[in-house]
Amino acid sequence: MCNLTAMRKSVAEVAAHFRVEVPTFSNAPEESYPGTPGMVVREEGGARVMQSMTWGFPLRLKGMSPSARPKPVNNIADLYKPMWIGLARKPRWRCLIPLTAYAEVEGPKGARTRTWLNVKDQPIFAAAGLWRVSDEWGAVYSMVTTDCNEAIRPVHHRMPVLLLPDEYDHWLNGDFDSAIAFQERRFPDALIEMTRTDEPWIKREADVSM
Q: Is there a domain that residue 64 lies in?
């Protein structure tokens, strides 16, 4: 499951790609983990806007101390689930998650490394997402995932719902059936590029996927 994303372009380059104004403030780092800020593009009043939000919907698990930090639900495995369907039915809560790549973990415990995945010939692309405003962390987002294609199967059985530029408006403004169709489709194998590295996988707080 995707627990690490990268945006290695400037805020101005990302804004130009998504045809939005450059935000006056952003605390999104070059790499994002669940529970940390990431960049999001959404629609407001018929226009696209870009802003940083926390990656992951806050969830309090049964038995957690009231003072404990909620778990970030950073991946959406099934848009039909009660947690997601109300948001997914309303285009206003859909968003684009700008990426230059995302990573999966490989290797044995204690020596795990990052394998980066990106879309061929797309210096910037997007993953489908949902967002909302939370009491705990303000604006938050989560990434929609789907079954992997054959190109990604060597590293994981799931992958983000990846979007090409001519699909952005369809995800943001399509009906619920269109959103489901994106989650059920198979992304073309030929469009995936994989780069295995020796970069260590820095262990972070475990995510929750629903």
A: no
CATH number of the domain where residue 163 is located:
3.90.1680.10
Residue 49: domain span: 5-58+71-209
> Which of 88-92, 116-120, 181-185, 198-202 has the least mean pLDDT?
198-202
Confidence of residue 24 (pLDDT cuts 50, 70, 90): confident
Residue 128 lies in a domain: yes
Structure tokens of 154? 């060597």
Number of folded domains that form the chain: 1
The pTM of the whole model exceeds 0.85:
yes
- Asked, for residue 105, whether it belongs to a domain, the answer is yes
3-state secondary structure the chain: CCCCEECCCCHHHHHHHHCCCCCCCCCCCCEECCCCEEEEEEEECCEEEEEEEEECEEECCCCCCCCCCCEEEEEECCCCCHHHHHHHCCHHHEEEEEECEEEEEECCCCCCEEEEEEECCCCCEEEEEEEEEECCCEEEEEEEEEECCCCCCCCCCEEECEECHHHHHHHHHCCHHHHHHHHHCCCCHHHEEEEEEEEECCCCCCCEEC
- What tokens appear for 78 in the block? 């099934």
Q: Is residue 65 part of a domain?
A: no
Q: Is the separation of the CB atoms in 58 and 142 below 8 Å?
A: no
